[in-house]
Here is the input.
Amino acid sequence: MSPPDARSPRPALFLDRDGVLNLDRGYVSRWADFTWVDGARAVVRAFNQAGWWVFVVTNQSGIGRGYYAEADMHALHARMGEALAQDGARIDAFYWCPHHPDAAEERYRHPDPPDRKPNPGMLLRAMADWPVDRQASFMIGDKPGDMEAAARAGVEGLQIGRAHVWTPVPSTSRMPPSACHKTRTPPTPRMHTYHSTLITNPCLL
Here is the structure.
């Protein structure tokens, strides 16, 4: 999806992909190997409905290592988008980094790729491309590198455990999304770890 013309900033939910949205089986590149984490699509929909941007920021060194092609990743992301659309949800943009210091192809080889987490490049690019309220935004990931990237981008980081379950919590308020944004206390960048059930209601964060 292309960034909108309206430049009113919104909070953004930054999501790692493997291990957060889908089971991490190692270098997932085919739809046949892709399995959603229980509740992940409902959480994306909840943040969409609350007026947040939802971005995926994913290291994809499997491309640079020659395990699969960039076209394979795009095809997988397209299938993710189709599945989300069936649930009334969407990813506003995918950001990926195919580069790695040991990449098989020279075009993907870089000693310290600026977009590869724990570097913050993908998050910074998303915030340059879209009108994002940085202070109200946060990132969910399953690795320390995700948390470091979030902190270096100036957003809060929420680290989940490997055996997490997404559990959207119904709001107890009828506030519109704009009210949710205004009443949420802007966080300072810090790290939190959740090891089982991650409660994800935008108005309750």
